[in-house]
Amino acid sequence: NYHVFYYLLAGASEEEKSAFHLKQPDEYHYLNQDCFSVEGEDLKHDFERLQLAMEMVGFLPKTRKQIFSLLSAILHLGNICYKKKTYRDDSIDICNPEVLTIVSELL
C-alpha cells in the first residue's frame, strides 16, 4: 500500500528530505489522487518503527538509504508529464525534464 510513502515524507530528516528531493504529499501525483489523511506525528512514529524493523532484520544503514531513495524515485516518477510530439504520432516529449533528472539521480 501507499502508507510507506507517507511515512517517508513525514518521518525523513531534513537532510534526507533534501537528498531525496522530498516535498509535501499533495505535490505527488501518486498521492494527491485520494483524500488520505493521518496525523503527522502518527506517520513520523510509523516511520521510526519501520526504520527500527529494518534494522532489526539486519538491513544496513546503506541499504535502508537505498530503499528510501528508490521509494522517493517512485514518487517522482509519477510526476513525469508527457506530451505528444508535434507531427509525430509515434513519440512523446517529457514536459518536465527536471523531474527525470531527479529520478535518475535517485536511482
TrEMBL record:
Signal peptide: none annotated. InterPro entries: Myo9 (IPR046987), Myosin_head_motor_dom-like (IPR001609), P-loop_NTPase (IPR027417). GO terms for molecular function: actin filament binding; ATP binding; GTPase activator activity; microfilament motor activity. Pfam families: Myosin_head. It comes from the Eukaryota. Residues 1-107 form the Myosin motor domain. The keyword Membrane applies. It is found in: Cytoplasm; Membrane. Keywords: Actin-binding, Cytoplasm, Membrane, Motor protein, Myosin. Its main location: cytoplasm. One of its GO terms (biological process) is intracellular signal transduction. GO terms for cellular component: actin filament; axonal growth cone; cytoplasm; membrane; myosin complex. PROSITE patterns: MYOSIN_MOTOR. PANTHER family: UNCONVENTIONAL MYOSIN-IXA, UNCONVENTIONAL MYOSIN-IXB-LIKE PROTEIN. Belongs to the TRAFAC class myosin-kinesin ATPase superfamily. Myosin family. This is Myosin-IXa. The lineage of its organism: Eukaryota, Metazoa, Chordata, Craniata, Vertebrata.
